[in-house]
Amino acid sequence: MNIERSLKLLVETGKVYFGVEQAKKAVKNGEAKMLVVASNCPEEAFREKTYKNVPIFHFKGTNVELGAASGKPFAISVVTVVDPGESDILSGKE
């Protein structure tokens, strides 16, 4: 799986939330299917393989690189996958 291509397709065709607070809300509400977390995410809770039974994909790059890979011109610490759309991100392995 090419994570950069999967992220772009995810953002274009699926439903995502950006940021730590949005991720926490989506997990709490049961919306989150996966979290993609930047290597320098400041939130300690996202260091494990799962967060409250939601799988975490640890993106190898920084939050700036995660933003760029998502097609956004700003830093993103966490991308929350609500609906993967046409992306294969949910089947991805680290």
Main traits of this protein?
single chain; 94 residues; alpha+beta; 60s Ribosomal Protein L30, Chain: A; 5 strands; 30% helix; globular
What does it look like?
By secondary structure, the chain is an alpha+beta fold. The protein has one domain (3-83): 60s Ribosomal Protein L30, Chain: A, CATH 3.30.1330. The protein is built from three helices and five strands, in the order αβαβββαβ. The chain has a five-stranded mixed sheet with strand order 1-5-2-4-3, with helices on both faces. The radius of gyration is 11 Å and the shape is globular.
What's the mean pLDDT score?
93
What top-tier CATH class fits best? Alpha Beta
User: What is the CATH homologous superfamily assignment?
Assistant: Ribosomal protein L30/S12
Second rung of CATH, namely the architecture: 2-Layer Sandwich
Helix content: 25-40%
Our measurement of the CA-to-CA distance between the termini, rounded to an integer number of angstroms, reads 9 Å
Total helices: the number is: 3
Rg of Cα set: 11 Å
- SSE order: HEHEEEHE
Largest sheet geometry:
5 strands, mixed
Q: Strands across the major sheet, in which order?
A: 1-5-2-4-3
Structural class: alpha+beta
